[in-house]
Design a protein that fits this description.
The chain has helices at residues 35-49, 57-68, 74-87, 89-92, 102-114, 125-145, 153-156, 172-181, 185-197, 201-205, 250-262, 277-291, 299-311, 316-323, 328-335, 343-353, and strands spanning 3-5, 11-18, 24-32, 212-213, 218-221, 224-228, 231-235, 244-247. It is mainly α. The chain has a three-stranded antiparallel sheet, with helices on one face. Strands 4-5-8 form a three-stranded antiparallel sheet, with helices on one face. The protein has a two-stranded antiparallel sheet with strand order 6-7. Helix 9 packs antiparallel against helix 11 (250-262), helix 9 packs across helix 13 (299-311) and helix 14 (316-323) packs across helix 15 (328-335). The relative contact order is 0.08.
């Protein structure tokens, strides 16, 4: 279709496309400064519509996000967009999809491995693996639906690693030593809840007054707080099974009850911990050093709780449900070095042989 010059001197691209039901639909866009820009828009649009690898990587990314946005949770989409738009698009957005080669990807991987955070530390190997997997997922999408012959990541290989380094945990004695050193009431209560329930930090930060079931000694986990692209976003928990109710001791519930009583005019939607994860990350390091115990991550309090339950002989199904894992395999994989349901039976058998 021809390009039209408007009265104000700009150009309009107007052409027809075929919709999913086979009918023709007019596609129009105004405001181009030159005829060439309008024609280029039409050509790029038709290439994109034809699912051709002649399209740019940026155009592929837009199609990919539009497709998966109907299938994934909002927080997952936001995380994908942040990673891709910051760490991948700047390198490849103008490249045609068919021209992206394994050697280009390896060069990008090398750049990612050299990057450092604001504090000068390199990115975690698990994060590097996430970057790599997000990029590869888009290229797999191009293979399945846009005619790309093969995913170049097959030859380029991967970076990073799937699992974090072996977790550090605190025993009850170590935690008690630590918590005595904490002189910030809000952080103190937060750390106690994390250690004695095993909930995720995002779940803690999203807790509101109505989630505290005082008469039942339970905490209702039904949402999570995440910081994505500089915004605090309340989302569904990580997995469907993450929606759960956690039993707590009388002592912990009494502390939570007193804490709520000290809040200024709280309502049922008042957040108990109205700040961000970094506050706990900073405090756990500071007070661990003050207490003279080894420094662990905030997430390791969750591991500490799981370890406590498993060493006490709690069955793996109960632990898995309490942690909100999607399946038992996740729990077994994470805590296989701790969980051994037969060890006590074997020890008992061997002891009997020596009687």
């Amino acid at each position: 279709m021809p390009v039209y010059r408007e009265k104000n001197g700009t150009y309009t691209a107007r052409f027809y496309i075929e919709t999913i039901d086979g009918t023709r639909k007019q596609q129009k866009k105004r405001g181009f400064k030159t005829s060439r820009e309008a024609k280029r828009y039409e050509a790029d649009f038709l290439i994109k519509k034809a699912h051709s690898t002649e399209m740019s990587f940026k155009e592929l990314y837009e199609l990919y996000i539009e497709d998966v946005s109907h299938r994934l949770k909002q927080n997952t989409i936001l995380t994908k967009k942040t990673i891709i738009e910051v760490k991948i698009l700047p390198y490849f957005q103008k490249r045609k999809v068919r021209d992206i080669t394994p050697i280009m990807i390896r060069e990008w991987q090398n750049e990612m491995m050299k990057l450092t955070k604001e504090n000068g530390e390199k990115y975690a190997k698990t994060y590097l693996r996430t970057l790599n997997n997000q990029f590869s997922a888009i290229m797999n999408y191009a293979v399945k639906y846009h005619g790309l012959r093969a995913n170049p990541f097959i030859k380029a290989g991967s970076i990073g690693k799937r699992n974090a380094d072996e977790m550090e945990i605190w025993t009850v004695a170590e935690f008690e030593t630590f918590i005595k050193a904490v002189d910030k009431p809000i952080s103190k209560l937060g750390f106690k809840i994390l250690f004695w329930t095993g909930m995720r930090i995002g779940e803690l930060l999203a807790l509101t007054v109505k989630d505290i079931l005082i008469n039942e000694n339970k905490i209702d986990i039904n949402k999570s707080l995440q910081r994505i692209s500089g915004e605090d976003i309340i989302t569904d928990p990580k997995t469907p099974r993450s929606k759960r109710r956690l039993e707590v001791s009388d002592e912990i519930m009494e502390e939570i009850k007193k804490y709520i009583g000290m809040l200024y005019c709280p309502n049922e939607n008042t957040r108990l911990f109205p700040f961000l994860k970094y506050v706990f990350e900073k405090d756990i390091k500071f007070f661990a050093e003050k207490a003279g115990v080894k420094i662990i991550r905030v997430h390791d309090l969750r591991h500490s709780h799981a370890s406590l339950l498993l060493h006490a002989g709690m069955d793996i199904i109960t632990v898995s449900r309490r942690l909100g894992h999607e399946n038992i395999e996740t729990t077994l994989k994470t805590y296989s070095h701790i969980y051994d349901p037969n060890s006590q039976k074997i020890q008992s058998f061997l002891n009997k042989l020596h009687i």
